[in-house]
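dude i think i finally got it to work??
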Amino acid sequence: MSTTQGGPAAGTVAVLGATGCVGRSLCDELLRTGHQVLAVARHPAPHTRADAFVPLDVAAAAPEEIAALLDRHGVGTVINATGGWGTTVEEMRSAHIDLVERLVDGCAATSRRLRIVQMGSIHEYGPVPDGVRIDEQREPGPLTPYGLTKRTGSEHLLAQTRAGRVDGVVLRAVNVCGPHTPTASFLGAVVARLRALGPGDVLGLDVADARRDFVDVRDLARAAVAAVHAPVTGLVVNIGRGEAVPMRDLVDALFDAAGVDAASVKLNSAEVASKGGGWTCADIRFAAQVLGWRPTIPLGESVRAMWEAAAGTTSLEVS
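look at this
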């Protein structure tokens, strides 16, 4: 399979979930690389950068409405960066299954065969034993509602691609860090709590004895833009750094970036409570092969950018 990347794909690139952490980095990277960008989200946000913005709840929109929107703006590719962790099964089903089904039907109803880049999750594989690098040949076995619904949405897209209705590819990303990481994530929540510390306050923090693969959101955006062009259809591609980092090391790096005195923090051991178990590490060789992509941003730099974004350049938002 060729890994040669051509110029910008014909037509505008639509980013669904454009106001969230991943979506805003996608818009920035697409604009930086010369694409026309249509931003789509339920509500506008002042930080969103795009050539056009349309407020739309895709999970509740009729396929005909989606098709008309995509045709009106001459969209050739859709990057689906919607969805969040959710708090109920119903919310996760709406965000991860219903939305994908409506999106596929809407794309299939347009005047051309559209490309869909689905931002999936490493948690679609479910828990794996410590030390295992997760490659694309691993049979998914998610145990949580999040992993199950994300997997179902991804598999629907792949099935509809095999049926010839759309041209789809799924990027299964590891945990994300970097600027504007939402407070719904562990690191984002720690940032928010550190920012709220007053003089003399002590932060009690529960940290599980877990090892996680984290990728900077800007590296993830580069992978998605590569997937817009790469001749990869109907496949899953894992995106990560390819290394499992102890959570305590990440927390320590965040303390260093924040300039927090050790006396201001009390770390407590905690049970692993995760969407994907105590270990995640992506095998990213396939991404290098088919997308020509590798991560470039060191975790220390990523954590520092997370702190600086929360410290005043822009506020954290939940995607």
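The domain at 12-177+214-242+281-295 is CATH 3.40.50.720 (Rossmann fold).
im so relieved honestly
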